[in-house]
């Protein structure tokens, strides 16, 4: 036990919005409990906010507008960052780490772009950098990936990591309404931000996928490495097509280890809408909940489920990290460092194996199926299932493929769209999970 | 960074059955990966087995029958115990901890009885005691409870933690067969041990409940504090009754914080069969899988799912702990200590609030419902739902109650069984989860 035991651990809080307010509240209300678990009192040394005069609810002696000065104060052991965004936060956190402070952050955008700098600074100073709250809110996910599975070989991480898009897709599925209408409703109910771009265009999920892939595969993946498609192009017809097949549509983040025919390993990280069977556990994850599957060689299939956002759930994850960091200070150690020793290349989306669902409106005459099937065969895409049904003088043709490189599937769909016998490509979507 | 970085971490393995064999294999096959993650090579210093001559598959120079000597050898940093049972293992692990070795164990029975001694020895020596593999196999559950949720207040842990009983109940549900017949089939298929007592009578689940309650509530709960009922009395009629209500039956471990009317806090830990709605996520957990719900004030509802047993999944959890312990040695710190600072009393089962389902065969005449309802009322038990249906000259009466102390519910059932108008108490079972 270190001589430091008993000395209070002093915390600088950057940002005091929904999550920060919860953290400040819990630090005060749970003080005795937190001290018992950390091995020393955990105290607020200061709170940096843009406008101190706008926070009458907080003790004035703790408030400051000068985050830059607070983070390197001699009186601070740990910096908790809940401001978000890249600059000026990046500079503050680097300064804090260089000054030997440990850092707890929920900033997924920053970590998805600049984790290398931050981890280097943490390693150089022997300080901790924890960020459980950056992915899947309250769900303990990063610590299991980093620590519990450290002796295993993770092959796949797949999940619902954005609550807004999951709410919208769940609502489209249950009401049959279109995307624009459902987004409006979600905004009205407070499930979508005034500017929903980061959520609906998949930027938020892509940042999380980058963080998950980096931790799971011990390599470096940034947000720009992640193939990203949002939900703005998902139509009521897509959901209707999914329903016909006993499936539904979810926006998934999928991170995989891929080994090519020559035995060369790479990683693939992508975010896009996916049709999954209704019997799949992810299909039942509704509203603002998150759920993530992890597959590993020895552990097999694991699933983690819980609230992905919100003040209290995110604060829970932040406090878990804060207790860990405080305890490391008390006992004189530090937590696991980041490891990017695997240094695997990132596989381009076009070369990533996927499966497609294609729903077509075609002419109702002989030879149509043969022409469509020929287009798939020409691109080396093997067909898993076909369903044809007549609707008046047109026919509906649904094709589900086996796995093929994504680029081959895209080219096939482009070619099919140009066939005379195809009136309309009603729905194209990637699929995951076996039908039962 | 400690000067020890780079020096190999030497491991003594006690026991080399299914799990131990996997651990030994992975330690060799994944040596490079494990070294990268731990910050130093992780090497086998010795393997203690009862009969070294029975293990031609292992390097003979590592084998010994003298576990007692191996665990305190100067050449050993960490002891991995996979023998199981209380004695002589307890003595070995105490000796190892007293000699400053860290310990990784999957021994739930030992932890559920003697964790206090073991944690004291670990604390006195500044050594680590990790045991993720003791509960729910590969599922990262204990580390999230101990660390990720360290800043939150856990109110409830509920789950399926025994694969054998889950397999049997799932099979009874899908085939309609009785308990004895299904157990025979499970034994034949290798899902149940030759002596299935520890599983079917709930001892295994009770040990796990004790460990979960201790960690979740920062208090000390032993296996003997856990109310325990196995599945041997679950009948085909129970499952049929559950099916009628859109429910199924699972053996659950339930650990709760209970606050009585005077504001006094206590904990309740119990293992018994429970009717849950088929729409509940635990209802869909089939075969040998485990799943555990955790509810916390700030985090809300979390769920963890995965393989609960088996050589490779259990080895994954052991290796995760081993890497953590090795890394703690390399950086010169240690992991979180156990905390039993809350020291909450354990509530007797009779005073624990539960809800009952009671299915009766009653005389088909006026006034029967009134008599039955009067019996519930006399014990202060409020009825949530009643369903009555005629079958010939008898009637079936199903009652689901609101929450009441378990003893009051038991007394009510006893009294109802003695009523003249009741021909038979067909099924009595506790229920969890809201009907939809």
Automatic annotation (TrEMBL), chains A, B:
Q: What is one Pfam family matched by this protein?
A: Homoserine_dh
Species lineage, top-down?
A: Bacteria, Bacillati, Actinomycetota, Actinomycetes, Pseudonocardiales
- Read off the InterPro entries from this record: ACT-like_dom_sf, ACT_dom, Asp/hSer_DH_NAD-bd, HDH, HDH_cat, HDH_CS, NAD(P)-bd_dom_sf
Write down the species.
Answer: Amycolatopsis australiensis
Query: What are the alphabetically sorted keywords of the record?
Result: Amino-acid biosynthesis, Methionine biosynthesis, NADP, Oxidoreductase, Sodium, Threonine biosynthesis
Alphabetical list of PROSITE patterns matching this protein: ACT, HOMOSER_DHGENASE
Question: Which catalytic reaction applies to this protein?
Answer: L-homoserine + NAD(+) = L-aspartate 4-semialdehyde + NADH + H(+); L-homoserine + NADP(+) = L-aspartate 4-semialdehyde + NADPH + H(+)
Function, as annotated, reads:
Catalyzes the conversion of L-aspartate-beta-semialdehyde (L-Asa) to L-homoserine (L-Hse), the third step in the biosynthesis of threonine and methionine from aspartate.
- Give the SUPFAM superfamilies listed for this entry: ACT-like (SSF55021), Glyceraldehyde-3-phosphate dehydrogenase-like, C-terminal domain (SSF55347), NAD(P)-binding Rossmann-fold domains (SSF51735)
Q: Where is the signal peptide?
A: none
Q: Mind telling me what this protein is named?
A: Homoserine dehydrogenase
Which residues of the sequence carry a binding annotation for L-homoserine? 193
């Amino acid at each position: 036990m270190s001589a430091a035991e008993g000395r209070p651990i002093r915390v600088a809080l950057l940002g005091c919005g929904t999550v920060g307010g919860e953290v400040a509240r819990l630090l005060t209300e749970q003080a005795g409990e937190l001290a018992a678990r950390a091995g020393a009192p955990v105290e607020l040394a200061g709170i940096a906010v843009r406008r101190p005069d706008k926070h009458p609810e907080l003790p004035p002696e703790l408030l400051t507008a000068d985050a830059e000065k607070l983070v390197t104060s001699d009186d601070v052991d740990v910096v908790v960052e809940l401001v978000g965004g890249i600059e000026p936060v990046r500079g503050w956190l680097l300064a804090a780490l260089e000054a030997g402070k440990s850092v707890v952050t929920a900033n997924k955008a920053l970590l998805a772009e600049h984790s290398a700098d931050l981890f280097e600074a943490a390693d150089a100073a022997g300080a901790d950098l924890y960020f459980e709250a950056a992915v899947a809110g309250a769900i303990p996910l990063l610590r299991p990936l980093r620590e519990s599975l450290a002796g295993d070989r993770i092959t796949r991480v797949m999940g619902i990591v954005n609550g807004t898009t999951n709410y919208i897709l769940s609502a489209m599925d249950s009401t049959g309404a279109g995307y624009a209408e459902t987004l409006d409703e979600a905004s009205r109910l407070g499930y979508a931000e005034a500017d929903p771009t980061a959520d609906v265009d998949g930027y938020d999920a892509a940042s999380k996928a980058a963080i998950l892939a980096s931790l799971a595969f011990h390599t470096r993946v940034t947000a720009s490495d992640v193939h990203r498609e949002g939900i703005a192009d998902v139509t009521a017809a897509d959901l209707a097509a999914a329903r016909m097949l006993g499936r539904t549509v979810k926006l998934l983040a999928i991170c995989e280890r891929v080994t090519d025919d020559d035995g060369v390993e790479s990683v693939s990280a992508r975010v896009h809408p996916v049709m999954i069977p209704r019997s799949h556990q992810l299909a039942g994850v509704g509203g603002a909940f998150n759920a993530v599957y992890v597959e590993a060689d020895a552990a097999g299939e694991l699933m983690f489920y819980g609230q992905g956002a919100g003040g209290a759930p995110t604060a829970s994850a932040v406090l878990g990290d804060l207790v860990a960091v405080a305890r490391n200070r008390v006992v004189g150690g530090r937590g696991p460092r980041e490891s990017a020793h695997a240094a695997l290349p990132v596989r381009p989306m076009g070369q990533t194996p996927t499966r497609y669902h294609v729903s077509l409106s075609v002419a109702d005459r002989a030879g149509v199926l043969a022409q469509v099937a020929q287009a798939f065969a020409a691109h080396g895409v093997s067909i898993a299932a076909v369903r044809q049904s007549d609707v008046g003088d047109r026919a509906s043709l649904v094709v589900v493929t086996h796995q093929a490189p994504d680029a081959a599937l895209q080219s096939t769909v482009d070619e099919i769209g140009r066939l005379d016998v195809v009136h309309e490509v009603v729905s194209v979507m990637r699929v995951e999970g076996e039908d039962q």
